[in-house]
């Protein structure tokens, strides 16, 4: 199966083509960036597809990150994935950034729990906790950092995500220290592709995965001026 993976949810723009039959990445590229995903994604996709040696019609599936993440960045990736899927008549699946962060650690099936954490600003993080084998211990949610530290009850964790270092710096001294801290701007696009290959299209929709309302608000309407007539 050939999978095109796309990730624009956080502070990078990434794409890859995975061939699951040979368990090999045909091509991949990642560009660090906080803004500019809309301008960078299509040229990046063109390069990756050319390097992969396959066309969009050859793909079996498109996988895209659904969040949590940047409101604007998510929309860029999701729009591109849906557009390609529609034009190429291929299915598209969604992969959460939290699960993509945890995937490489879970693949090693270690004993330590895995906490995926993404900076949600204002002393909050998006997070989830899974066992070393991938069993869900705490469902994806947004919470204050102090609340997340209660996950110390599961034992010494492996911290992953762009907020991993933030959690490590606040980890309670009376709890078992983290066994590892992996702070990455975004998940490894390789694992977005593998999770996309394993996903069931019927249960992995390519739509934004919000854990709270977006920090984007429409502009306030200007107050209406009273209508004046000739008699007023």
From TrEMBL:
SUPFAM superfamilies: Actin-like ATPase domain
Pfam family name, one: TsaD
Domain of life: Bacteria
Domain Gcp-like: 34-154
InterPro entries for this protein: ATPase_NBD, Gcp-like_dom, T6A_TsaB
Protein name: tRNA (Adenosine(37)-N6)-threonylcarbamoyltransferase complex dimerization subunit type 1 TsaB
Species of provenance: Bradyrhizobium aeschynomenes
């Amino acid at each position: 199966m050939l999978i095109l993976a796309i990730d624009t949810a956080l502070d990078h723009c990434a794409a890859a083509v995975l061939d699951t039959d040979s368990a090999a990445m045909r091509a991949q590229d990642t560009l660090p960036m906080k803004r500019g995903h809309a301008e960078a994604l299509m040229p990046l996709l063109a390069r990756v597809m050319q390097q992969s040696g396959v066309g969009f019609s050859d793909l079996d599936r498109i996988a895209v990150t659904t969040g949590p993440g940047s409101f604007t960045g998510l929309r860029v990736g999701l729009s591109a994935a849906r557009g390609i899927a529609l034009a190429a008549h291929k299915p598209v699946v969604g992969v959460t950034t939290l699960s993509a962060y945890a995937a490489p650690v879970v693949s090693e099936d270690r004993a330590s729990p895995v906490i995926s954490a993404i900076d949600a600003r204002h002393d909050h993080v998006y997070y989830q906790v899974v066992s070393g084998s991938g069993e869900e211990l705490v469902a994806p949610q947004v919470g204050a950092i102090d609340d997340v530290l209660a996950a110390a009850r599961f034992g010494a964790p492996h911290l992953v995500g762009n907020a991993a270092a933030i959690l490590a710096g606040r980890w309670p001294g009376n709890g078992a220290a983290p066994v590892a801290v992996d702070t990455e701007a975004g998940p490894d696009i390789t694992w977005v592709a593998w999770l996309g290959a394993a996903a069931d299209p019927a249960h992995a929709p390519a739509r934004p995965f919000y854990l709270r309302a977006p920090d984007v608000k429409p502009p306030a309407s200007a107050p209406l001026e009273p209508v004046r007539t000739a008699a007023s």
